[in-house]
Amino acid sequence: MDFLNLDIDEFGYRKNFVEYNKICLVYSFFAICSGYIIDNISKHIQTKYLNNKHPIIMIIIQLLLITLFMFSVEYYIYPKFGNSWQSITPGLFFISIFFGMQFNLFSNLQSLSSIA
């Protein structure tokens, strides 16, 4: 992400309104894209291999996919980006949008409540 000249250390994004919006939009874009991909992978697994059954198994699989993605980003792809999830406002945008994109997870959780 250095190619975007995003200063995510030392709260450099707070320089002015344009920098703040730029980093919030970039984080939001990455959250939408990655959340959409993870959600679609889990939908594919659920329809192809589980025949839209077994919501508990699918919840576990999707949570493992999310954990694997977040671990990969935080430790291998761009550690500063992973660290920013805990320390700056745009990082909170990323996490909230990323988890908000997990529609399949929410629908499986909802189907559990209708079973019980």
- SS-based structural class? mainly alpha
Major sheet details? none
Q: What's the helix-strand series?
A: HHHHH
How big is the Rg?
16 Å
Q: Which term fits the overall shape?
A: elongated
What is the number of helical segments per DSSP (H or I, 4+ residues)?
Answer: 5
Beta-sheet strand percentage? under 5%
Number of domains: 1
How far apart are the termini? 45 Å
**Overall pLDDT, averaged?**
85
Q: Roughly what percent helix?
A: over 70%
Total strand count, please?
0
- Poorly predicted segments: none
Pick out its properties.
116 residues, elongated, 5 helices, 75% helix, mainly alpha
What does this structure look like?
This protein has 116 residues and is mainly alpha-helical. It has one domain. Helix content is 75%, strand content 0%. The longest helix is centred in the N-terminal third of the chain and has 33 residues, at 17-49. It is elongated and about 50 Å long. The N and C termini lie far apart (45 Å). The mean pLDDT is 85.
